[in-house]
Recover the amino acids of this structure.
C-alpha cells in the first residue's frame, strides 16, 4: 500500500523538487499540497515542469490540511516548522527541510537566527556515523542545509581519520535556487547571469554553526570553519572547495586511502578516480555527491572539492533518502543517481 | 527477461542521454557501448553524470561489437548508420538517431546531404497519424530530428484540421547540445554565453526537408517552410515559434479546439491552459512537449509555440518511446514526464 | 562649455546605461540624478558598475530637481514622461526613453496602453529617411523601443526598395534587461537561466504598433507585423529574425544591393559580409547594429537578421545619438562602436 | 603624434581585448596585427565585435611584421615571447601578456613550466610598491597573470601592514575566457553553462608561484599560498576569495584602515563601502578592481574578496595601463572605469 505524502510549501523550489522526486517514487502517493500566498492556485501555474500534478490545487498550509498522511514534508521559511509540527501526530513522519531542528546548541541557534530554539531532531545526513541508526523508525527528521551537506560529506573522511587540523577554510559556489524564489533585486536574471559574488562573508552565514557542529562531532574536538558562500550564475548546484592543514606525516596517499575507505559503501557519495574533478553539471538533478581530494605539499594542506545539486541531495533528495530510511524502504528507492547533462 | 541494448556513439550527447534514460528503464539491461576516438576509455571519464555506468569501457563501433543485443541505438554522425545497420540481423531492433533514413524523397536527401540516399525507415514520431501502427513490431526506426519533432508536433493539429495556409514561418532557438560535442570555435562557452545567433539561414538547414515532408503529409498538399534556427545560450532545449496565415473563418476558438482534440490523448504533448506559454526550462530532461497556440487577428495568423528538450523528446526520449512501441512495451515506460527545474 | 545633463530614473537599467555612456562622453557633464523609491540612496549601491558616480545621491524625480540642465533624459515607466516634460522649459532638450511620445496614431496608443495619448515627438531613429533633419535642433525626442529599433533597421532597406510584401513575420529574442529591474518571478535568475520562453504572443506586445508605424511609413502602404518576442537567458541583446515574401523578380542579389546601398553611410548599422551572421555577443555594450540578409528561394522569402544591444543602441545609445544630433554635436561622439566580447 | 602599436596574437581573447581598448585610446594608432593559424584572415571574421578594424588582415607573427612600431603587445602562448622580443629593438616598448618574464626565480619557472627561464622584466602591476618607478621609461613589461593580479591587489594591503599570517588560502572563480580560445571539450558551451568545476587543484596551477612571489615581496617573508581556481559559467570575470589568519590584536577596524590607506590613491582599485561586496558583473569590460575585507572573529581570519575582469584589468587593461606609464602618458588614459552592466 502506497505511502501517502503531503508537501507543505509546494510552490517553492524545495517543494517543487520534493514533488519531482515523489512522482517518480514507486512507494509513494502524493497527497495534499499546500502553499502560503499561492493557496488556491493550480500547481501547473507555479511548477510548470510537473505536468503530472498540473491540475492539483494548493491549499493553505494548516495542520488540518496536512492531517491524514503518513509523511509530511515541510518546505517552509525558517522558523515556521515548529508550530505546524507539534500539531501533527507522533505517528506521522515529519521531514523538515527548514533549519529549525538542525542545531543542538540553543545558543548557536539564537545567535544566528535570533529566535528561541525549537529543539533538535534526528539529523538527515545518513552518511554520518550513527545517522542511519538514529533515522531508522524516527518520526521526525531535520534535513541538513545544502552547504552543510556538501561540506560535511567532503570533509568527514579526513576528520574521521584524524588527518587534518581543526581549522577549516571553505569557499563554496551555489546556484541561485539556493536563495529560493524570493523577489530580491540581486536574484534577478539580469543581475546574476555573468556574475559571481560573495555574500554572508566573515562567518555570518547561518549554515556555519551547522558545519561546525557536524565536523566537531566527527573530529571529537572543536573545529573552526571559515565559510564564504558565493552566488554563481547557474540555477542549481554547489561546488565547495574545502581545505585544512594536514597533520604531521599525512600525505596524498593517506588522504586518498581514508576517503576510499569512508566512501566505499556509500550509494550516493562517489570519490572520483585520481585526476578527475567534480563539476556541478555532472550532478544536475541527481542525488549523487562527487568528491575528490588532493594534497598540496607546498602549502601543507588537504584540498577537498565536493559537488552536489543543492535541490536534490542538498535538500529534497536528502529528505527523501531520510524518509526511506525512517520508513524502512530501501534507502536508494526513487532517487536518481544520474545527472541531466550536458 | 530484460531487453538487452547496445549503444553506438556512447560518448556523444545523444548517446549519453540514451544511457541516462536506459539506466532508469525497468525493462532494459545496458550492454555494449561503443565509440570512435573514445574507444578504450572509461565511460566515467566521458559522461561523468552517469556514475552507475562509470566503469564501463567503450569498444570500437563495429557490427561485431554490437552483435548479440535485442536493440541497438545508433547515435552516429550522419551517413554512418547504413553501413552498420545492414550488418545487424533483421531480428535486431535498430533505432537510428541519425538522419540517414528519415527522408522519403531521395532527391531531397541528395540536395541537403550530398550523398546517395540510404533508404527510408518507419519514422519515430508516434504522435503523427498512423505512426504508432507503423512502428509496432518494426525492427528499424528512424528517429526524427530535434527541430522537426518540435515543429511537427506544434503544427500538425492546425494542418490536420485544415485551419492554416501551407506557407509556414518557423524561427527556433536551440540549446548548444543540439550541435553535439564538436570542437568548433563558435560552440565554446566563451562565445555562446550571453549570445544569440542564427545559422543555416535561408532554407539551407538540413532539417528543413524533414519538416516539409511531415507537414505536407498531414496537410495533404505541399507546404513551404521558412526555417531559421538560432543558437541560444543554454545547454538544452528547443523553443520553436511557428506561424502561418489562417484560412478564412478561422479564429482563436477554432484553433484551440483543434489543438485540444488532436493532443488530448497524447501522453507526452501537452497543450497548456490559455494564457500560459511554454518554456524550455519546464521540459529540461523531460520527454514532455509543451504547446500553446494564439490567434493574431491583426496579422491574420496562427502563432504556435512548442518547447521540448532536444536531447530527450528531441532525440533520446523519442528514440526510447519508439523502442517501447516497436517492442510492445507500454509507450511511456522509463520516460520522465517531469522536467528538472529551476 | 560642457552640456549639463540630468537623468530621471537613474536607478534602472536604462538610466544606468545612459550614465555609463555619458561618463565617457567628452562634451557632457553629468548633473542631477533622480529616482523614485531609490531617492536618497547612493548611486554606488544601485549601480555598482559606475564607480566614477558612486557617491552621487539620487533625488526624487520632480521638475524642480531636473530644472537647470541643458538636457534631461527621462528613463521612467511608460506614462510618466508627459507630466514631467511639460514642466521643463522649451529650451531644454528632453529625451524620453519611454513610449509616451512614439506613436502618431492616438487610437493605436489607446488600444495598446489604455490611457489618453500624450502626443508625438520627433522620433529618435536617425537612420530612418528624414529623421536626422527632424531631430536637428529639436528640443523633444522620443527614443524608439528596443524591438522597433532592431526590426525597423533590419527591414527598412527592403521596404524602401520595394522588394518585399507588406506582411512581415518577426520573432525576436531579448536579454532580460529589456524587462527592466521589476521584481517578477519569471525574471529571477533561477527561472531565466537555461530557458527560452515567449511572451506577448499574438500581436499584443506594445512594440507592435510602433513597428507597424515605421515600416508602413517606409513602405508607403500598410504593413502587417506578426511579432513574437521571446526572453533569452542573457542579460542584454536582441536578435530579431524578420521575414517577408519577396515581390516577383526579387532574388538574393537584388536584396543585397538594396541593403548595401541603404546602409553604406550609416556609422552604427553594418551589413555583414556574405556568409557571416550577427550575434548579440558582438554588440554587447556597443551602439552598433549588425545586419545580414538571405534569400530563401524555396520559401520565396527574404530573411533578415538584426542584432543590437537593447540597452545601448536599443535605448541609451540611441538616446545619446539623438541628443548629439539635436544639439549639433557630431553624431558618433561618445558612442562605442566596439562590443565587449567574448 | 600618435603612438604606433602592433599586436601579436590579435585573433585570441587577450589580443581582441587589447584592440578593443586601443581603438578607444586617444594617443594610439593601431598598426600591424598578426596571428598564427589565422594569418591571412580578416579581423572581422575573427573578432566580430570590433567593426572599426573589421577589414584589417592578419599577418604571420614575425619580427619583420612587428618591426617599425613604437609599441608591440605580445599576446602569444606561453614560451613564445622571448624569441620574438629579442629581435625587436631596444627602443621598442614590448608589453608581454604571456608568462615568460614574470617570475624572478628560475627554479620556480622551470618547476611550473618545464622550460629554461627566459629572464625577468619589470612587472606590470603598477599598484605594487615601487612598480610605477620601475615601469616608467621601461621598454620591456611583463604583464601579470589574471589570477595573480586579483589576489595580489586583494591581499597586499594586509601584508604591507603586517596584519596577517603568511599562510594564505585562495579560492577563485574565473570566466571561461581565462582559458583562451582553445578547442577543448571541457570549454564547450554545453559543458560550462550551468557548471562550476575546479582545476589545477593542489598547488599545481602555474599562477601559484607568481602569487607567492608578489605576496612574499610585500610581506618581507615567505608566504605560502593554497590556490584553487574554478571555472565559472560566465565569459569574463574573476572573483577571488582570499583568507589568512590575522596576527594577534588585529580586528576588523585595523583591517579596514589598512585597506583604506593602501587603496585611497589608486585610480583602478576601489575598496567598497562596508557591507557592499564585489561582483564580477560590476567590472565587466572595466579596468576597475573592486575589493572588500571582513574580519571573521570566530575563525580568527581576515577574508578579502576581489573582483576584476580577467581580460581587462587582468590582462589587456593592465597591459595598456603599464604602457601608459612606460611612455609617460597619464596612467588612466583610454581605460574604462565603468563596467557594462547588467
Amino acid at each position: 500500500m502506497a505511502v501517502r505524502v503531503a508537501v507543505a510549501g509546494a510552490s517553492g523550489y524545495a517543494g517543487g523538487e520534493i514533488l519531482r522526486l515523489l512522482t517518480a517514487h514507486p512507494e509513494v502517493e502524493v497527497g495534499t499540497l499546500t502553499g502560503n500566498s499561492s493557496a488556491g492556485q493550480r500547481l501547473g501555474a507555479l511548477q510548470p515542469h510537473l505536468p503530472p500534478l498540473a491540475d492539483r490545487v494548493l491549499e493553505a498550509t494548516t495542520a488540518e490540511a496536512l492531517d491524514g498522511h503518513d509523511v509530511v514534508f515541510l518546505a517552509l521559511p525558517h522558523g515556521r516548522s515548529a508550530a505546524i509540527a507539534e500539531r501533527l501526530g507522533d505517528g506521522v513522519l515529519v521531514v523538515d527541510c527548514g533549519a529549525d531542528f538542525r542545531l543542538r546548541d540553543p545558543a548557536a541557534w539564537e545567535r544566528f537566527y535570533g529566535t528561541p530554539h525549537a529543539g533538535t531532531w534526528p539529523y538527515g545526513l545518513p552518511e554520518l556515523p550513527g545517522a542511519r541508526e538514529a533515522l531508522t523508525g524516527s518520526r521526525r527528521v531535520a534535513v541538513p542545509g545544502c552547504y552543510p551537506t556538501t561540506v560535511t560529506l567532503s570533509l568527514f573522511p579526513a576528520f574521521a581519520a584524524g588527518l587534518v587540523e581543526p581549522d577549516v577554510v571553505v569557499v563554496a559556489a551555489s546556484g541561485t535556487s539556493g536563495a529560493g524564489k524570493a523577489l530580491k533585486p540581486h536574484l534577478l536574471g539580469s543581475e546574476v547571469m555573468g556574475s559571481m559574488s560573495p555574500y554572508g562573508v566573515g562567518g555570518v552565514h547561518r549554515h556555519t554553526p551547522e558545519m561546525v557542529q557536524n565536523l566537531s562531532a566527527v573530529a571529537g574536538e572543536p573545529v573552526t570553519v571559515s565559510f564564504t558562500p558565493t552566488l554563481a550564475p547557474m540555477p542549481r548546484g554547489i561546488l565547495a572547495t574545502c581545505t585544512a592543514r594536514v597533520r604531521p606525516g599525512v600525505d596524498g596517499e593517506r588522504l586518498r586511502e581514508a576517503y576510499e575507505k569512508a566512501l566505499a559503501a556509500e550509494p550516493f557519495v562517489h570519490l572520483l578516480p585520481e585526476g578527475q574533478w567534480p563539476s556541478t553539471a555532472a550532478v544536475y538533478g541527481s542525488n549523487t555527491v562527487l568528491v575528490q581530494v588532493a594534497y598540496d605539499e607546498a602549502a601543507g594542506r588537504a584540498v577537498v572539492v565536493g559537488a552536489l545539486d543543492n535541490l536534490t541531495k542538498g535538500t529534497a533528495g536528502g529528505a527523501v533518502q531520510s524518509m526511506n530510511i525512517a520508513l524502512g524502504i530501501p534507502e536508494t528507492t526513487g532517487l536518481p543517481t544520474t545527472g541531466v547533462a550536458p
Summary: The first helix of chain D runs from residue 13 to 23. The interface with chain C takes residues 13, 16, 20, 23-24, 42, 44-45, 47-52, 54, 176-177, 193-194, 235-236, 270, 272-273, 276, 279, 281-286, 288, 290, 336-342 of chain D (CB under 8 Å).
